[in-house]
Amino acid sequence: MANLESFRKFISRGITTPVISALAKTPLTPNAVTCIGFIITMGAGALICTDYWLVAGIVVLVAGLFDMLDGALARATNKTTRFGAVLDSTLDRVSEAILLVSLIAIFARDGFLTECILAGAALVGSLLVSYIRARIEGLGVECKEGIFTRPERVILLALGLMLSQFNYAMLITLSLLTLFSWFTVIERMLYAWRKLKE
Prior knowledge:
The chain is mainly alpha-helical. It has a single domain, classed as Up-down Bundle (Four Helix Bundle (Hemerythrin (Met), subunit A)). Helix content is 82%, strand content 0%. The protein is built from 7 helices and no strands. The protein has helices at 2-23, 30-49, 53-76, 82-110, 113-138, 150-162, 169-196. The longest helix has 29 residues, at 82-110. The relative contact order is 0.12.
């Protein structure tokens, strides 16, 4: 898991480093970047609801970039705050809910019950992955455990949206999203049991 976390950080730095130096010279604050990313995600939700799924997938990736930039900008400009961390985490959760609820609405409209159930299960799983980490760390134990965290969920969902014109693409995407999210829930619960059982 340490290697996986190191890999995530390596990829994140590779993507954000060229942009952060430019952003640091602007008046944009880390919280503003967080809010911009959230607004872009709301746009993606609107695109899903109006059946522009290919564009929605691209917009989801753009929003994901902003999600990586806010924390990096805060560290680069020495503007990390506790409220900024809470704002970022909260809007991350709401952003995932917007996307998955938008999908549920469309699938319900079109009568795709299986996809509705999977999107709902994926939503609960993704929220639990984040909640368990927050709960563990609230007890003083760092938690980076898990093979399928927010970046992986965002990328998978974006790819599913962009490939949605192919048969069963979203069914497969939501199945994988649900499976790996709940697998990560189990991983983190086992990690919590090992660390906190005493």
